[in-house]
């Protein structure tokens, strides 16, 4: 038996033991399998196993995905001439229990799934509230930043708690390491900036799938993200204005700010290509959060985004300053249309860096000092008139 096949058989045996009445034996089998595979460096026989991610916000749990697992283990364990249906990953998935919610105060289902089209395949997590729906639910699509994944972003933004309160579905697409080695959405690549191309095509198709399968309200679908995810959220709003009723961008960049990796790095410094100054064909309501001490994505990107999404139409702006209190101070500029509706909000968080404002420390890249970006974005989204 090959090494990876032996490893998989050990893990499957441990799972079967855990489903029976011998959890201690299951734990021992898992530890032995991990030691044999080299996934528990320095571990000695008989030493209690403490996961290396314990206590580290935003770190991945073992087998949350296949990152960090040796290449020989990632390959399907199929014998020569046999069908791929024997892939060990499918067998392992069949023994897994239903996903649990991220936090006790988000008691709904936190499901796993995937979507594929001609442009590729991406996995996702979906939060479905426990609270019964009184009608078609709103849907919020949340795009994580670099070095993050769906469950991490859900924990850090605490959006599932708000979704439970307001009866929303929340979709968290997951970027693949194979598509970007840093887990970034490829907002800077010209191949991933247009309608029905590349990652926008996958994300839009995934959104439509959830709307159809879970009966979401197609008039109340929103997209938001952090950093690279925020930049991709802006791309999605510009490319699919009929699909997304509003956009939220935290520490992100304007559409067309870059065409490749080098221009992307320059855009992060505030040096955009000419395309970033263009207005959109159709105005989409936008809320932007950005720390004025962000050393990763220059705060000027937030200003350009607002101008880009507002276009040439007439707006009236109202500026409000929030007192620091126990958290960070902020300046909020609200743009109102002729009917007095808020079509854009620009939140500048004073003293904040590159992190989700008001986020939960359970996730990565969060600043618990506030204001609460998740709550404010959801408020802004749900206040938009249903098209």
Short descriptors:
387 residues, alpha/beta, ten-stranded mixed β-sheet, two-stranded parallel ribbon, 12 strands, 31% helix, 19% strand, globular, disordered N terminus
Plain-language structure description:
This protein has 387 residues and is of the alpha/beta class. The chain has eleven helices and twelve strands. The protein has helices at residues 3-19, 23-37, 71-74, 88-95, 150-157, 159-166, 198-214, 228-239, 261-268, 300-310, 373-383; strands at residues 109-117, 120-128, 139-143, 169-174, 221-226, 246-250, 286-291, 316-322, 330-336, 342-349, 356-357, 366-367. Helix 1 runs antiparallel to helix 2 and helix 1 runs parallel beside helix 4 (88-95). It is globular and about 40 Å long. The model is unreliable at 1-8, 10-27 and 33-101 (pLDDT under 50).
Evaluate the radius of gyration. 22 Å
H/E element order: HHHHEEEHHEHEHEHEHEEEEEH
Estimate percent helicity.
25-40%
Number of DSSP helical runs: 11
Instruction: Assign the structural class, choosing from mainly alpha, mainly beta, alpha/beta, alpha+beta, or little secondary structure.
Output: alpha/beta
Outline, from the CA principal axes? globular
Largest beta sheet: what is the strand line-up? 1-2-4-3-5-6-7-10-9-8
- Span between N and C termini? 60 Å
Q: Output mean pLDDT.
A: 79
Number of strands: 12
The low-confidence runs, each spanning 5 or more residues with pLDDT under 50, are 1-8, 10-27, 33-101
Biggest beta-sheet profile: 10 strands, mixed
**How much strand content do the residues show?**
15-25%
């Amino acid at each position: 038996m090959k090494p990876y096949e032996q490893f998989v058989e050990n893990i499957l045996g441990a799972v079967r033991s855990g489903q029976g009445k011998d959890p201690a034996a299951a734990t021992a089998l898992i530890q032995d399998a991990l030691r044999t595979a080299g996934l528990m460096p320095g571990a000695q026989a008989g030493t209690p196993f403490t996961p290396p991610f314990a206590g580290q916000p935003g770190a991945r749990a073992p087998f949350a995905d296949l990152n960090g697992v040796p290449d020989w283990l990632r390959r399907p364990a199929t014998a020569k001439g046999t069908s791929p249906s024997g892939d060990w990953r499918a067998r392992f998935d069949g023994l897994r229990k239903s996903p649990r919610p991220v936090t006790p105060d988000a008691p709904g289902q936190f499901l796993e799934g995937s979507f594929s089209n001609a442009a590729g395949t991406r996995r996702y997590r979906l939060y479905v509230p426990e609270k019964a729906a009184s009608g078609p639910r709103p849907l919020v699509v949340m795009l994580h930043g670099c070095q993050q994944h769906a469950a991490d972003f859900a924990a850090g933004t605490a959006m599932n708690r708000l979704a439970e309160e307001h009866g929303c579905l929340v979709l968290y697409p997951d970027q693949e390491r194979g598509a970007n080695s840093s887990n970034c959405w490829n907002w800077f690549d010209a191949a991933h900036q247009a309608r029905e191309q590349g990652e926008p095509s996958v994300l839009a198709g995934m959104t439509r799938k959830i709307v159809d399968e879970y009966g979401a309200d197609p008039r109340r679908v929103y997209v938001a993200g952090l950093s690279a995810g925020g930049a991709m959220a802006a791309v999605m709003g510009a490319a699919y204005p009929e699909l997304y009723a509003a956009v939220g961008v935290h520490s992100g960049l304007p559409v067309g700010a870059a065409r490749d990796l080098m221009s992307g790095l320059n855009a992060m410094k505030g040096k955009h290509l000419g395309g970033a100054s263009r207005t959109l064909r159709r105005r989409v309501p936008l809320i932007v959060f950005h720390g004025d001490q962000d050393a990763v994505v220059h705060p000027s990107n937030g200003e350009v985004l607002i101008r880009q999404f507002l276009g040439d139409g007439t707006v009236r702006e109202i500026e409000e300053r929030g007192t620091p209190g126990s958290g960070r101070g902020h300046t909020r500029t609200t743009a109102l249309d002729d009917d007095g509706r808020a079509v854009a909000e620009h939140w500048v968080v004073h003293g904040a860096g590159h992190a989700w404002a008001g986020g939960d420390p359970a996730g990565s890249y969060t600043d618990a000092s506030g204001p609460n970006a998740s709550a404010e974005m959801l408020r802004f989204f749900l206040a938009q008139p249903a098209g």
